[in-house]
Amino acid sequence: MRLATLSFCNDIDFADWSSYQEVHRCLREEFGLAVEDSFWLFDPLGSEMALFKTTMRDKGPYHNEILADIRDGRLTILHAGGNFDHNTGFQPSRGLLAEGLDYLRRHAQVPAIWTNHGDEGNVQNIGWAGGNYQQGDAPSSDAFILDILLQHGVRFFWTDQHTSNDFVFAAPGRPGQKILRKEMTRAGFTINGFARYRGPLPKAPDAETLGKQISQTHVEDLIAERGDVVIYQHWCVHRTTAGKPLTARAPIFPSESHNALRMLARFRDRQQLRVLPLLDLLQEHALLAAVA
User: Would you identify the CATH topology of the domain 4-291?
Assistant: First the structure.
């Protein structure tokens, strides 16, 4: 009998190298969760989780370490190719992103998973037939990048469309809301879009609200229904009392989130639940959809 399955899909916003390392030390050593994370190719503001700033000549401060973690399978999600929010004052081009992807292919590997990022300055985000500011799938735009992503083997896309507040998604072969679905883009390509669980939170999910997302009730329902879920997170983010995001510092996970992760590990250890790498879960859904 197939077990209920949970995967994480984290966006690397506000992370620095120290918070990224501390999150994964905690997940790995305290809960036995060797989960993956995302990274940026470019960040004009100089994020420590980006390979480059605005050109290929301007390497990020942890460029070599990021490449090593990509090769080792710890960084497996490409977060929109970069951080180009309005406050960066920089807009990406097809040429820049293509150059970055080619570099990634030659020096590590291009991840199979892409997630959109940020505000409307991120014109490279992948849209769909009803998209608005997203231009990554619009052939007439200088930010058109979808064809190059597909050529590099990117297979799964989160395109802003599918964020759910219902925790239990359908496992392959079971009725219910789907994790994976076909999306038609403006370039005429059909892509595999996937959905993520957000939860009815006032702000985007973060380390401090993770415990609300993976409550015991949610996990017990997931197990009972033998469903699947992809948890949308920003686990390198804490917030001020006014709700403003900032880089998380140890202890990364407050007590509610810490207890939820311990509970998750307990269900896994009892073999009532699988905690899978995101790519493994998406490939399962894609394979069974192909033969259905």
Answer: TIM Barrel (3.20.20)
